[in-house]
Structures are given as structure tokens and as C-alpha cells.
Amino acid sequence: MAERRKINPALKSALELGPILAFFIAYIRLREQSFTIAGTQYDGFVLATAGFIPLILLTTGILWALTRHVSKMQIATAVLVVVFGGLTVWLNDERFFKMKPTVIYVLFAGILGAGLLRGRSYLQYVMEEMVPLAREGWMILTRRLAIFFAGLAVLNEVIWRTMSTDMWVNFKTFGLTIAIFGFFMAQGALFRTYGAEQETDD
């Protein structure tokens, strides 16, 4: 197995968040326009999606080349971007790309929930090196995150089905990122309590 390498955190964040911001900028610039390609008319959203697909693959590839590691969540996200983004472009139907976050969060919630039913925290396998917690802390955090992901899936469905495309793009670009950041910030007490317990046990 290749040794995992560390890179500048700012570069890592740019590679992870860059495609999302690029999609947002492309959509803002193209949303009022339509283009005819090979006899088919495409709106700005579909073209922004078409550009997002190779970009997410490129940045994921660069991240792997620099660190020799890509998380399973990142791989799953890239695969679903290709599948649902490809369907959006192929069928010229923006609904498929709007459904992608729902599928991603249902998948994550399902995986975490399956682990909990087996008495395990799959989240611990992914994040243990970054966040040292006692086993009970991992179980609590995993349960909360599974519920959180399920809530995001429901929220995405409500927004894309009942609100404008502009609202959904803003939600996808900023709302989801802020929500995930806020979730982990809100777990400070859990990290302090169960992190301290693990340090004492060690």
C-alpha cells in the first residue's frame, strides 16, 4: 500500500471545494443563456454540470497523486457525479443532477446506520487518525451524523422539488457546506468529553 502523504491544508481544501465553486460561477454566468450543440439546445445549468464532471475527476486525481489517498466518501461522490451528471447531460434533464446530493446522503446515512446495527462505527475507521475518541464517543457521533445525513437528504429533496434552480444552486454551494461545518462545530462538547476519556485510558 502506498504511503499516505501530507499536503498543505489550503491546497487540500482548494482541491475539494474548488469544483463546487467553479460550478457555482459557471452557473451564474450561463444561467440566462442557452446553447445549441449538435442540434440539441442546452441551458446553462446543463453546461455547468457538463464542466463539473471532468473537473471533479481531475481534482480527485490530483488529490490522490499528491497524497496517495482518497477517502471512500470522495470516491463515492465522484462516481455519483459521473452517473447523475452524465444522465443530466445525456438526457438534457437537470433533475438528475439535483437528485445527486439526496442519493449521496442517503448512501452515507445507510452505511453509517448499517454499521450501528452491527454495533460498529464505520465513521471511526475513516476519521480515527484525525479525531481520537473513546468508542462510546464514536458511536454517539456516528448516530448523530447518520441522522444528520438523512435530514440533509430530505432537505435537498424539498428544496429542488419546491424551489427555483437558483435557490438549489445556492443551497448546494453554500448551504450544505455551512451545514456540515456547523454540525461538526456543534460537537465540541462530545469531542472534549470522550476525547479526554480516551487520553486518560491511554
From TrEMBL:
<keyword id="KW-1133">Transmembrane helix</keyword>
<feature type="transmembrane region" description="Helical">
    <location>
        <begin position="12"/>
        <end position="30"/>
    </location>
</feature>
<keyword id="KW-0997">Cell inner membrane</keyword>
<comment type="function">
    <text>Plays a role in cell envelope biogenesis, maintenance of cell envelope integrity and membrane homeostasis.</text>
</comment>
<keyword id="KW-0472">Membrane</keyword>
<dbReference type="GO" id="GO:0005886">
    <property type="term" value="C:plasma membrane"/>
</dbReference>
<feature type="transmembrane region" description="Helical">
    <location>
        <begin position="73"/>
        <end position="91"/>
    </location>
</feature>
<feature type="transmembrane region" description="Helical">
    <location>
        <begin position="103"/>
        <end position="123"/>
    </location>
</feature>
<feature type="transmembrane region" description="Helical">
    <location>
        <begin position="169"/>
        <end position="191"/>
    </location>
</feature>
<keyword id="KW-0812">Transmembrane</keyword>
<comment type="similarity">
    <text>Belongs to the YciB family.</text>
</comment>
<keyword id="KW-1003">Cell membrane</keyword>
<protein>
    <recommendedName>
        <fullName>Inner membrane-spanning protein YciB</fullName>
    </recommendedName>
</protein>
<feature type="transmembrane region" description="Helical">
    <location>
        <begin position="144"/>
        <end position="163"/>
    </location>
</feature>
<feature type="transmembrane region" description="Helical">
    <location>
        <begin position="45"/>
        <end position="66"/>
    </location>
</feature>
<dbReference type="InterPro" id="IPR006008">
    <property type="entry name" value="YciB"/>
</dbReference>
<dbReference type="Pfam" id="PF04279">
    <property type="entry name" value="IspA"/>
</dbReference>
